[in-house]
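Posting for a labmate who doesn't have an account.
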Amino acid sequence: MAGANLQRAYVLHLKPYTDSKKLVRLFSYDEGCLDAVARPSKRWPALEPFIPFLCHVSGKTQGLKNLRAAEIQDSTPRLQGHALFCALYLNELLARALPVGQAVQSIFEAYEETIKKLEGSHADAALLQVLLRRFEFSLLRELGFAVELLSCANGSKVINSCTAFYTFRLGFGFIPCALHEQNSTNPTLFHGEVLHAIAEQQWSSRSLSAAKRLSRLALPMLIGSEPLKARELFV
């Protein structure tokens, strides 16, 4: 690949295209999310998700490109069990959320860091949840849909109290909740105390549960209302 314009990348999704080619969705450091046609070659390593590699793609449009070369940078990651399911979830989330052909280097770095941490966390269920929630909120923030955890839509501050309640409304944020509106079965209802814990990353079973519920309420701003298939596996 001497002289080629190489860029760091990961495979988000791979499927057959023709008898001799595959269609691959790449997440690259320099160009963001890309769709490319790859022709298997004995000179290339096997293209697999979660393995960082250097690649060269060609094509002038934001449509389908050609993967001309690939070179593995690291060994096969040690992902198994729930950690593997979490990584599959991240790939599906990125494939749905990322704009095509737009570099999002901060997200690439966050993804790379999360994949590395997932490799050694398969036995720690709480850590897996922490890693997912951090990545989801980072993704929302970097793509312009940050969840303001400590401020309400009306400009008031979220009170750090277990008796203060707030309702999350998609596209608006948190709204103070009157006493007669407080319903423990309402999935959009959050304690002010828990919102402060999430903002400060003070993780407990309670704050992790609330953060998971909040991320599922907020992510449709990026990915639409269709459920993510990988959630059926674990998250």
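Reply:
Got it, the structure tokens are right above this. The chain has a mean pLDDT of 87.
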